[in-house]
Amino acid sequence: MVAVTGPAAPTGRGAPAGRVERLAAAAERRASAAVHRWRSSLQLRVVTSALAAGMVAVGLLGVYVSDRIADGLFEQRREEVLQESARATQQAQATFAASTASTGPELQTLFYDLVPALQTGGSGSREVFLRRSPGDLPPLLVNDVSTDPALGGLITPDLRQAVRSDESQRWVSVGIPLGDGTLAPGLLIGSAVEVPAAGDYELYFLYDLAAEQGTLEFVQRTLALAGVGVVAALGALTWLMTRQTVQPVRSAARVAERLADGHLAERMPVRGADEMATLARSFNEMAESLQDQIIRMEDLSHLQRRFVSDVSHELRTPLTTIRMAAEVIHASRDELDPAARRSAELLRTQLDRFEALLADLLEISRFDAGAAVLDAERRDVRDVVTSAVEAAAPIAERRGVWLTVELPEEPAHADIDPRRVERILRNLLVNAVEHADGHPVEVQVAGDQRALAVTVRDHGVGMTEEESAHVFDRFWRADPARARTTGGTGLGLAISIEDAHLHGGWLEAWGRPGRGACFRLTLPRRAGITLTSSPLPLVPDDGDLPTPAPPVAPRPRELDPAALPDLDRLEA
């Protein structure tokens, strides 16, 4: 029961990605490569972590030191200017008290002479403002005087109120506007003075702190350069220290890879007497022990393969004689009593299975000895699949299993050995039919520019993930109690995976209990192509569905009249 269908109509490909999408994809690839590089290098992770920690520590220390220096410079300069402004205020008050000016013009002249004198009497650049305090009109009115009237707006009403309400000096930090639109730090100090015959006035001194700001910026630049140097030195020191630690580990990894590739004489260099040298000596001792054990195991495996090959060849001669005698007995079975006639039929059946087992053992021995030869030719895989399905159709019909085959419309040519590929597919189909429990078996063929794939899916009893990992082992059975109704030898899938590897291809298995199993064969189109992906998925579309509940009553196991206990033990 076979149904062959063509592929579904191909879907159109999407439009090419735009420039922004390509740039985003390239950036994502570079970021992924950088993350992979960072995660795969212990030395890089340690160095970057040390640099990050060093930068944070140096940054916090720099901020703290800069803040402390700024506070120190400001406090020192503030004390200086407060003392200067206090002396200048006392000098101005003494000048007003000693003056004999009694008219408005005389007092105005006194203000014009005093304010410039107060400006030049300080330790640095400063501006002076003399303003009349608001209140009742004094006997004489004298105009306010300042060295820079444009900066008079820095004197706020709150500051003036504080100066008038307290006899001590009042100060406030201000930003002095410059010609380029920036602000320079400044300190504005105010005091109250009394002018005879004119009343109460306010004397303000504006000090420019640009010099201190320049000193602070110089210190900050020095701290930044020193921080960069410290971080660089920390990075270099960390790199050197981690290199001394990581280099032996890398050497061990390289030697381990060489050992894994079969270079058993590879060893690590031993230098010095420290912990790394102890690690190298221990690693070399382990490698020496592994080499001895592997050599002994190879010798034992060689003897086992030689034994299997020799026994298989030696058994063929007596088996031929037994076959001839069995054929004579089978030809005369009608003349025998029923029990002897039945024995003659069973003898012939089990001899067929014994010959198949010997043939598989000989094939396995050729793979083990490296004597298997690939007779590759350019063939259409669809024809090979059709031949394998036709060979398995009688078995499927007896088991009541429907075979469905989906082939591509275009030719599926590849450089293959038709005999070996057909044997792989025949083993997969017979295995699927045997475990399908009457459900359909689906075969699908697809290809791309590099590879061809064939999947065989059944919906029978299925298998667990652990069973999927061992399904290609020799003489392995998922259910040892299950009888082989098709005369299997237990070597079919083991031979199939060897045939796939001989082509440079893959043979993979997937299964879930109650949802069946899927086997995927992937072959390169031409010799020398290294497979990186398969045209067909291994996990079916319904592979992620929940596992169905088991039936309430177990199904009765089928009995095989040809499966006698003694002969089954002979096969095992």
Which helices and strands appear, and what pairs or packs with what?
Blueprint: E1 2-5, H1 19-40, H2 42-98, H3 104-119, E2 126-132, E3 145-146, H4 157-165, E4 170-177, E5 183-195, E6 199-208, H5 210-260, H6 275-331, H7 338-368, E7 377-380, H8 381-399, E8 403-406, E9 413-416, H9 418-435, E10 441-447, E11 451-458, H10 465-470, H11 492-502, E12 506-512, E13 516-524, H12 565-571
Parallel strand pairs: 1-8, 8-10
Antiparallel strand pairs: 2-3, 2-6, 4-5, 5-6, 7-9, 10-11, 11-13, 12-13
Helix pairs in contact: 2-5, 5-6, 6-7, 7-11, 8-9, 9-11
The rough form would be described as elongated
- Helix fraction bin: 40-55%
Can you list the strand order of the major beta sheet?
1-8-10-11-13-12
CATH top level class name of the largest domain: Alpha Beta
User: Architecture of the largest domain, CATH level 2?
Assistant: 2-Layer Sandwich
Gap between N and C termini, in Å? Answer: 32 Å
Protein name: Sensor histidine kinase MtrB
Subcellular location: Cell membrane
Main location: membrane
EC number: 2.7.13.3
